[in-house]
Amino acid sequence: MGKAEKKQQQQEVQNLIPGLPDEIAMECLIRVPYKFHNDLKSVCQRWLNLISSHSFYRERIRSGKAEHLVCQVQPLPLSPPNPKDSSSATTHLVSDSAAKITSTKKDQQQDDDDHELHQQRQEVHRTPLQYGLTIFNASNGTWERIRPHVGRIPMFCQCVAVPASRKLLLIGGWDPITLEPVPNVYVLDMVNNSSRWRRVKPMSVARSFFACAVVGASTVCVAGGHDGQKNALKSAEVYDVEADEWRMLPEMDEERDECQGVCLEGDRFFVVSGYGTESQGRFKPDAECYDSKTGSWSKFDHVWPFPSLSPRGSTATITSNRLQQHQWLWFLGKEQQQNGEVVEGKIVSSIVPLPKSVTEGSSSPCVSVTTLHNSQQQQKVFVMTGNGGRGCSSSSSSAAALSSFICNECEGEGAFIMERDMSNGNIKWDHVHLPVGFSGFPCSASFLLI
């Protein structure tokens, strides 16, 4: 073999795909669906290094091949024994002596079976509710569940996605056994180890039902919520994801339980509404904003005009270049739609009417909202409801024109993707199929582009 042939062979071995320039090979690899990335890593060292790098996922985003992942903390389905299964098992056990059993004994056996089944069902309902992390891939419509390796996921914990590092954090919530607030924090690296949870440094204060948002590239701010005595909190702290360190922030002016966290302009952390210890259930109309540049809080009035409604989960934050304004989208029921638009400085809070199939059953349905896409041409938001219809597909600029249809194949209540055309304001709702076992209302949700 000549020198030229040896050189060519060595070059091919070093290439990502032998016989192809690396530029073409990269175009091939970035098109491989995310669910196969762990398989790609096992092919060779070069592929392992490439698929484990953040530059690979930035290239997927740049080329429009990245997938939209909605990450939700959902209650796991409770599965009581099937009466048919119990009946058939009993029949199988006694079949050899069935001819010798009198009708009285058969009745007694049935009564015993019914009693045992009733006890099993009661045991299921006494079992503490367990939660799992659900991933809905909005790009291909698939659902999967990632079970923790670190014990049970805390109830009502906050699910936070950090886009820069492509990590998921589960923060705070309740211990599922004691129902006490916990300071625990868990991290899941969606690039390097998407099947292994890691427990990291806990918060300084155990809290639940608090405001939470990613601020900057790799920090997460939390504020408010309540402690183990159900006292509303005004304390706040910030977590550095890369350094694994927490530090306390100055306290807010007021206690805020059941508040909503929103980040604007990359470094401003808003804590919207909430209530104090002595005014439980009466939600404040204002918000407090922490500016990381000045290290201080300021108050914004007329932000949340619904004193009997929690803002948690119903908010999508949209940044609009029009008039350099930021837009908060509130996804609300029919009673709140009459409030229209609220303007405070550069913040516009707009009411987005939910599909009729959702609001027919309740004036204030539970809603979990996750922003999927935002551009000058289109806004796209994933919405999962806690009551209402099975499905809806409609298009209009007003609530009156919304129509619905029934999806007989869905389990549960309602999941939708809203698309809004920014040129004319028209809204289109598309139904999202909910497979069996994925209909539980999420206590928290976030989004990753990967």
Automatic annotation (TrEMBL):
InterPro entries: F-box-like_dom_sf, F-box_dom, Kelch-typ_b-propeller, Kelch_1, KMD1-4. GO terms for cellular component: cytosol. Residues 74-123 are annotated as: Disordered. Residues 84-94 have a biased composition (Polar residues). Residues 20-60 form the F-box domain. It holds the Pfam family F-box. GO terms for biological process: negative regulation of cytokinin-activated signaling pathway; regulation of phenylpropanoid metabolic process. Residues 104-123 have a biased composition (Basic and acidic residues). Gene3D superfamilies: 1.20.1280.50, Kelch-type beta propeller. This is F-box domain-containing protein. It comes from Citrus unshiu (Satsuma mandarin).
